[in-house]
């Protein structure tokens, strides 16, 4: 490879990619692909125009399957290199990739490689903002890829959105605001692929990440009806800790807003009770956070009244009270035990025979416990997302 670099072999291979002969293109693309497999040389190769040459083949869309495979494979390797990634999001490069993904007449291998390039870029914090702010509407086109009929493509698309949604607050806000149909598309995707753990894991992770985004008026930008979607996903995949964890975190974020709490009441006896009985400590922590938010002092009185009445009278909800008391007895004075104790005290302080009674506890008491352990960030969930 040193000789190729020294004697102009790279520039020659880039020129040969423009040749009309399929055999010549295939040979040149194969050479460039194998050269880009060396991480130590990628930045040097990029400076010689390799990225632009490979994109040129994708733009023309006339190459055979083997040539496209080598070119997109080389771009995928470059996209995973932090110093080169910014070159791959310039001009109309993202549009070219997403056009390839959406093109049903293109080779299946090419479409999968194209969306994997987008995923590799989405994992790079240095270019996440460039992706969501792309002037050619790359983010909106990426969301549209969720509605493709091929599961392999939908999985990687959902994973790309999940990684993008772990970005900064401005990035999350941009994702939520980029397309008014985002919420509907996420819900339809979850319904369509209700048996796919891979799809639902990334969809629920994306929703959970975006559910923490607030506007200037401190209102969640993502619709509260998403809470019902997360509950349905959690109920149908209670054997998947990965999905349960994402759904629990999303419900915890959504339940911060009083109006969303009302939407969670129908699921108290199903989703929440199952999560409280989970053998996974993180899932239980998220369920406790939901209960904590549903009973917090700053929440509207009618909601707390309804929560207490449901747990007291609804056979489906009664196990919640039992489980909370069991956690109090088992955990003692550790953080989980203290949170469970506080929730039990709040519920017991509400006289369910008299509407809108005083709670019996003050704000200082209700906010004295430390919930930092269950307010985990989106970054912690990256390890759960499936890798390409």
TrEMBL record:
<dbReference type="InterPro" id="IPR011989">
    <property type="entry name" value="ARM-like"/>
</dbReference>
<dbReference type="InterPro" id="IPR016024">
    <property type="entry name" value="ARM-type_fold"/>
</dbReference>
<comment type="similarity">
    <text>Belongs to the beta-catenin family.</text>
</comment>
<feature type="compositionally biased region" description="Polar residues">
    <location>
        <begin position="354"/>
        <end position="375"/>
    </location>
</feature>
<dbReference type="GO" id="GO:0071562">
    <property type="term" value="P:nucleus-vacuole junction assembly"/>
</dbReference>
<keyword id="KW-0677">Repeat</keyword>
<protein>
    <recommendedName>
        <fullName>Armadillo repeat-containing domain-containing protein</fullName>
    </recommendedName>
</protein>
<dbReference type="InterPro" id="IPR045156">
    <property type="entry name" value="Vac8"/>
</dbReference>
<dbReference type="GO" id="GO:0043495">
    <property type="term" value="F:protein-membrane adaptor activity"/>
</dbReference>
<feature type="region of interest" description="Disordered">
    <location>
        <begin position="354"/>
        <end position="388"/>
    </location>
</feature>
């Amino acid at each position: 490879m040193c000789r190729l670099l020294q004697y102009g072999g790279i520039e020659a291979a880039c020129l040969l990619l423009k040749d009309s002969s399929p055999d010549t293109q295939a040979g040149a693309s194969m050479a460039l692909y194998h050269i880009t497999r060396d991480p130590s040389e990628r930045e040097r190769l990029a400076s010689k125009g390799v990225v632009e040459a490979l994109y040129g083949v994708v733009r023309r869309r006339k190459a055979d399957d083997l040539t496209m495979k080598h070119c997109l494979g080389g771009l995928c390797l470059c996209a995973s290199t932090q110093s080169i990634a910014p070159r791959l999001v310039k001009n109309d490069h993202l549009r070219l990739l997403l056009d390839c993904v959406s093109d049903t007449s293109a080779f299946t291998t090419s479409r999968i490689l194209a969306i994997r390039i987008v995923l590799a870029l989405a994992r790079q914090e240095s270019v996440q903002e460039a992706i969501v702010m792309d002037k050619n509407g790359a983010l909106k086109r990426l969301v549209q890829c969720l509605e493709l009929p091929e599961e392999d493509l939908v999985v990687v698309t959902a994973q790309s959105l999940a990684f993008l949604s772990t970005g900064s607050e401005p990035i999350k806000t941009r994702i939520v605001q980029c397309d008014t149909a985002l919420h509907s598309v996420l819900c339809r995707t979850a319904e369509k692929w209700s048996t796919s753990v891979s799809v639902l894991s990334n969809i629920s992770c994306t929703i959970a990440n975006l559910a923490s985004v607030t506007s200037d008026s401190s209102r969640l930008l993502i619709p509260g009806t998403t809470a019902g979607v997360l509950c349905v996903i959690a109920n149908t995949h209670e054997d998947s800790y990965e999905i349960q964890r994402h759904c629990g975190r999303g419900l915890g974020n959504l339940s911060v807003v009083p109006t969303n709490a009302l939407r969670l009441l129908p699921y108290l006896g199903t989703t929440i009770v199952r999560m409280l009985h989970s053998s996974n400590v993180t899932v239980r922590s998220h369920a406790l956070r939901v209960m904590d938010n549903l009973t917090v002092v700053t929440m509207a009185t009618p909601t707390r009244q309804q929560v207490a009445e449901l747990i007291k009278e609804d056979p489906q909800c009664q196990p919640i009270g039992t489980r909370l008391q069991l956690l109090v007895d088992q955990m003692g004075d550790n953080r989980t035990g203290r949170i469970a104790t506080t929730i039990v005290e709040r519920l017991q302080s509400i006289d369910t025979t008299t509407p809108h009674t005083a709670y019996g506890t003050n704000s200082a008491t209700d906010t004295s416990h430390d919930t930092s352990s269950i307010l985990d960030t989106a970054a912690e969930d990256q390890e759960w997302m499936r890798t390409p």
